[in-house]
């Protein structure tokens, strides 16, 4: 076992001379063996070892005895000791989590606090090869996403340093032999035998079968884990090319926009990876309620030929496709929906989205663009009104006979459905639609007109 662990430590560059190492020690077989093993390295590498132990207060006097056992062992071995007690049951009740999750969160919060206090280089954990195999089997049971089935990393960043797991290539039986060879005493936690916990059920029923078929199963799982992480890292790196085509908001309210056609030009594996990286950005970390079913829902939306579609994801995330544009956002309640305002000549009117529209009289030759409107003043009944679309709205378009529904104008111009309800429309007092701002114009404009022209100019939020 010694050779295997030293080789693993060297391969992953886990420990360097003169480092401060925190060691998580419960008093059980794995952590006792770990602390003893590190003690054999302590003098040669000038290591500072600090054992950390947590009483979760779940087994009364028995768990307090575990804490005292670790403290006495550290005193005997000349190792610094920091212990604490945490109230798992109260925390569980407040947070609404399970017992195991609550215990883990409190335990790691303590580890992080001590890590910063001692400016430690690493937190050393006693997870071994059988633990790794159990973890991967649990992940396979819970998720079909490759990125969610990678096992425990040999090293990962944590607080001001990293977490390291030197025992991942050795089995539970090898650790038991190590303890016996060195006559080491340990404490046993009876909750580890409770098969109500999924991990314990896998440990007692599934893993023995796997290891009976292949005694090296734990090593295979560790090698698989390392390769899976390396390959996933490469795919994530390649997926950055996809994300370069995606717009990520820099506002307080997070949203993401992408082009459906551009997104689909990339290989399917990168599309899927980019999708989950987008979710990581929006959720901060991948939401546990997201499964491969959500991924399939998104891929179906991506390939659907309907011009408009939407998906509802956990925590209120909404994915909306409007023609080529796909938007991920957490839409809140709008402070405004429909509106109708009088637009006075010579004044600027600010709309709810902070865009502005101005009306004035204009004499001389004028040119129009998408955001400037000119109209023969003799054919307009004042005052003007700026409002949102109403059911049945129709307008007479310049240069065309007959009228057209405003709804059809939005469709023809491929305006996203989410923008249509608040799109500004200008009418005169009689209700005649003069301008669907930025899209289509009505009203008369003849070169033979005498007198001033009515001129409207629209500025969006970015230009105001």
Automatic annotation (TrEMBL):
Repeat in keyword set: no
Source organism, top-level taxon: Bacteria
Residues given in the record as ATP binding sites: 26-31
Biological process according to GO: tRNA modification
Subcellular location: Cytoplasm
The entry's keywords: ATP-binding, Cytoplasm, Ligase, Nucleotide-binding, tRNA processing
Lysidine-tRNA(Ile) synthetase C-terminal domain segment(s): 384-456
Coarse class of the protein's main subcellular location: cytoplasm
InterPro entries with a match to the protein in the record: Lysidine-tRNA-synth_C, Rossmann-like_a/b/a_fold, TilS/TtcA_N, tRNA_Ile_lys_synt, tRNA_Ile_lys_synt_N
Signal peptide boundaries: none
Assigned EC number: 6.3.4.19
Gene3D superfamilies in the cross-refs: 3.30.465.60, HUPs (3.40.50.620)
Reaction(s) the record says it catalyses: cytidine(34) in tRNA(Ile2) + L-lysine + ATP = lysidine(34) in tRNA(Ile2) + AMP + diphosphate + H(+)
Family: Belongs to the tRNA(Ile)-lysidine synthase family.
HAMAP family to which the protein is assigned, alphabetical: tRNA_Ile_lys_synt
This protein's name: tRNA(Ile)-lysidine synthase
Organism (species): Halobacillus litoralis
């Amino acid at each position: 076992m010694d050779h295997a662990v030293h080789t693993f430590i060297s391969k992953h560059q886990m420990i360097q001379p003169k480092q401060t190492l925190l060691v998580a020690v419960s008093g059980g077989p794995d952590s006792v063996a770990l602390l003893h093993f590190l003690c054999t390295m302590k003098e040669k590498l000038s290591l500072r070892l600090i054992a950390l132990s947590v009483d979760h207060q779940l087994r009364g006097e028995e768990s307090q005895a575990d804490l005292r056992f670790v403290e006495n062992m550290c005193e005997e071995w000349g190792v610094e000791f920091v212990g604490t007690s945490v109230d798992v049951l109260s925390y569980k009740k407040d947070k609404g989590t399970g017992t195991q999750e609550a215990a883990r969160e409190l335990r790691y919060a303590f580890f992080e606090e001590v890590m910063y206090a001692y400016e430690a280089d690493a937190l050393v954990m006693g997870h071994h090869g059988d633990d790794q195999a159990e973890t991967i089997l649990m992940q396979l049971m819970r998720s079909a996403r490759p990125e969610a089935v990678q096992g425990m990393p040999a090293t990962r960043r944590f607080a001001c340093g990293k977490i390291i797991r030197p025992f991942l290539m050795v089995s539970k039986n090898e650790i038991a032999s190590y303890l016996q060879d060195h006559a080491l005493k340990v404490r046993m936690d009876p909750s580890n035998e409770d098969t109500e916990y999924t991990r314990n059920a896998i440990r007692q029923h599934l893993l023995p079968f796997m290891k009976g078929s292949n005694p090296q199963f734990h090593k295979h799982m560790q090698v698989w884990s390392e390769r899976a992480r390396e390959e996933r890292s490469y795919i994530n790196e390649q997926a950055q090319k996809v994300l370069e085509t995606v717009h990520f908001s820099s506002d307080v309210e997070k949203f993401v926009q992408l082009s459906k056609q551009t997104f689909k030009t990339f290989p399917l594996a990168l599309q899927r990876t980019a999708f989950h990286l987008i979710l990581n950005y929006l959720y901060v970390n991948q939401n546990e309620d997201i499964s491969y079913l959500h991924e399939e829902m998104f891929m179906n939306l991506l390939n659907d030929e309907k011009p408009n579609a939407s998906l509802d994801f956990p925590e209120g995330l909404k994915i909306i496709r409007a023609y080529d544009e796909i938007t991920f956002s957490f839409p809140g309640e709008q402070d405004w929906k429909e509106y109708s305002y009088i637009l006075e000549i010579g004044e600027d009117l600010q709309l709810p989205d902070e865009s502005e529209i101005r009306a004035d009289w204009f004499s001389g030759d004028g040119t129009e663009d998408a955001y400037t409107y000119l109209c023969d003043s003799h054919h307009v009944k004042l005052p003007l009104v700026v409002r949102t679309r109403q059911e049945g709205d129709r307008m007479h378009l310049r240069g065309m006979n007959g009228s057209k529904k405003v709804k059809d104008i939005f469709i023809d111009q491929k305006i996203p459905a989410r923008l249509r309800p608040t799109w500004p429309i200008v009418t005169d007092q009689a209700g005649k639609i003069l301008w669907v701002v930025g899209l289509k114009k009505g009203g008369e404009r003849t070169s033979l007109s005498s007198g001033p022209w009515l001129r409207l100019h629209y500025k969006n939020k970015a230009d105001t």
